[in-house]
Amino acid sequence: MLAPAFVPTAISDSARNRPAELAATNPLAKPYEDGVRKAVLAGKLSAAQVAAITLEAVKTGRFYIFPHAKIKASIEARSRDILEERDPTDLSRVAAPAHGEQAK
87-90: which pairs have CB atoms within 8 A and are 24 or more residues apart? Predict the structure, then answer.
């Protein structure tokens, strides 16, 4: 299971492929979409790097693949929210490992 963070690709522009009959969007979605676009463009690992990490993980038999160490804190917070049946945590407040430190 591949769980990367934001990777600089064209995915934030995927609405261009939406069929015309599904083109209507929520008028409040723009700030969210702008934030996602900014995060995607700021991604630290390229798609090629994520692919190489993924290929190596598959070769070594790893099931869970986390190319970005910081994503684990977000996954843990979201899992706790689900199990405790509470509203989602603001993930911008979740502590992440220091630069160069591996997530546990």
Answer: none
Q: Which pLDDT tens digit goes with each residue over 31-80? A: 888 888 898 888 889 999 999 999 999 999 999 999 998 889 889 999 99
Residue 77 in contact with residue 34, Cβ under 8 Å? no
**CA nearest 4: which of 54, 38, 41?**
54
- Residues 15, 4, 73, CA angle at the centre, nearest 5°? 120
Tokens read off for 8: 């600089």
The answer to whether the beta carbons of residues 39 and 6 sit under 8 Å apart is yes
pLDDT number for residue 94: 59
Give the C-alpha separation, 23 to 41, whole Å: 23
**Residue at token pair 């900014």:** 38
Residue 1 tokens, joined:
């299971």
